[in-house]
Specification:
ComA_synth_sf (chains A, B, C), 10 helices, Phosphosulfolactate synthase (chains A, B, C), homotrimer, 37% helix, 10 strands
């Protein structure tokens, strides 16, 4: 952990390679220099990068970008929508070849845009887990499709058993579906019920909005896994984890009681 | 069209130089390196760049920036508010000299901030069309000024007849006036009525918000002309055009029916 | 003032070094190249930079970043939350040493996250004023804590008397507390009452949202001091100050009456 000066009593942060408290950032079309800039500033704090949905199809700098992340030791994976785009076209084998072509070591399996038989989804997870480390995602991108908590739990458990390394709680780039209401408010009962059954380090919560990050950190501490973080929000997130921004300032010291300097 | 791998059955996209399906991006003060980065990533997908409103007055890198865009073959024009700033000061001839000084090949004529007699507006279009390619804009920046659909149509037709290359539907950077309600919601009846009378390739719809872009693409297809796109949203927009983001995923395949992988 | 062409009758802008009309920008984790890009574009228009809250604790490029700003002649200070983080841990002397270690010439004293006896706050201002130029901030980061206008005035006056160079009206990065309602709307009665008692050039208004900037500029003119401006919004703000964006277009010419070109 970097430290330009000493502040006493900060929460302990896991260091890399982290299994807890890791940050997944979303690259939705950065240039090579922008990737370098991002890594200069946040390389220490970001654990894995997602190339958002199927942006990898259109960006002209894909191979070079993967090289830059790789040189920095930060794994990259294609957004789940790309997996679904191949499935929807009956091109699963092509997808596996694309993963090989680009030497991908991680992949996401999701069903946010298509309806997928869950055994079939677990089959994809199992097959891909022989090739790469799999993150699987639960939750629809459709705000109308509300999955009840017991079902989230059942799906997450089955996907972990099928070989997923971690399961992702869906939120999109906007933070307004899946784990969240359309206003961005956390479905807190859902999250709490999931946590009674699924180990917290196995879950990666998509939480693009600041209020969502704050909510998870207050509930689960500095070392909760958070994802869909915009590149320029990784530093702000790190300060929230450490209680160094107003939102969590009082959470990590003085037993969470207001600080009074009288 | 770039393509890092093959996905079957994507909608056909026009290629440059495009008359349909083109993307206008808004530069509201990028540095030279930021312009280079933008072009590295999105140069293939952006057709024309607007220097937002009168930002060109204050940026210190104007000439150099124009040179970089020009070298990439991407035309640039000053936002309509600059035209209006000259008109409001009775400096139309000065404006024409500014266009020459910077070798501009495109210009916008608008009346979003001032009240302009429409014959006079068409006169400006006619005069400028002898010097440059003219985009003319319809719609007020004032959320209180609602122009009824028949009047939008009358204005657009007259401006095209006066020599405008395309007409722009106003939305501002925020996407909350003109074509849109203050909430950002599309005035869909207005758009549909306009399209009964004005050819769709002659219209450039300002649509800075994602939901607005999605709405136009669902109504008019991958090759609708969209503008006021933030530089870092050109790649995301391209994926929406291609049905490679959740929002339009089901629109372009399977006849728009949900994909079921059972 | 830069000027790529001549527009008549623009409001007069103060030039550097400005005591009125200055712009404070917030850097919440820029890379070195991003700082350079920011200064290329906006160096002429930005007067002082705040390293947001305690981001300086986690960024790995702190010393180098300070060097770049220094070379451009732009003073930098740490956000008030960092001061409070040291106070909350009873490390005020450590904070003073940090200011020396990094050769800081400005510092902020605030009590947005902790409750602080006001005499004690003024004591910190007095002590730090012997070491650096002090900005002190009034207003809580807690949306629930509403300070009545007479109290804002009393606090501001006392802090200026204690040695603060300017007082800051709190708004956060989001612009939704302190001077503003949770919707972002200005507490206009509060601002007007403050201005009956505190000289306008002694106040720096945090106003991160465009509508807030517009409100202050319409009330107080082109040369109001505004802060918490995102780096890429400094150019847009400058155009709003000059009446070169739709929002203030009619404010600075024609005695604020609509321009009619008939």
């Amino acid at each position: 952990m970097n430290s330009n000066y000493i502040l006493n009593g900060l929460p302990e942060r896991e260091v890399k390679p982290r299994d807890r408290g890791f940050t997944m950032a979303m690259d939705k079309g950065l240039s090579i220099r922008e990737v370098e800039d991002f890594l200069e500033v946040a390389g220490e704090y970001v654990d894995i990068v997602k190339l958002g949905w199927a942006t990898s199809y259109v960006v002209p700098n894909l191979q070079k970008k993967l090289d830059v992340y790789r040189a920095a030791g930060i794994p990259v994976y294609f957004g789940g929508t790309l997996f679904e785009a191949f499935i929807a076209r009956n091109q699963f084998d092509d997808y596996r070849r694309v993963l090989d072509k680009y030497n991908m070591t991680f992949a996401e399996v999701s069903d946010g845009s298509i309806e997928m038989n869950h055994e079939k989804k677990c089959g994809y997870i199992q097959t891909l887990a022989e090739q790469v480390t799999v993150l699987s995602e639960v939750g629809s991108k459709d705000a109308e499709k509300i999955i009840p908590p017991y079902m989230w739990i059942r799906l997450m458990k089955a996907e972990l058993e099928a070989g997923a390394w971690k399961v992702i709680g869906e939120a999109r780039e906007g933070g307004n579906v899946g784990l969240f209401r359309s206003t961005g408010e956390v479905r807190s009962g859902l999250v709490e019920e999931i946590l009674t059954q699924v180990p917290f380090e196995k879950i990666l919560w998509e939480a693009p909005q600041k209020a969502q990050q704050v909510w998870f950190i207050k509930l689960l501490g500095a070392n909760v896994n958070l994802g869909n973080i915009a590149p320029n929000e990784v530093i702000p997130l790190e300060t929230i984890r450490l209680g160094l921004r107003g939102d969590t300032f009082n959470h990590f010291i003085n037993n969470g009681q207001p600080i009074i300097d009288a």
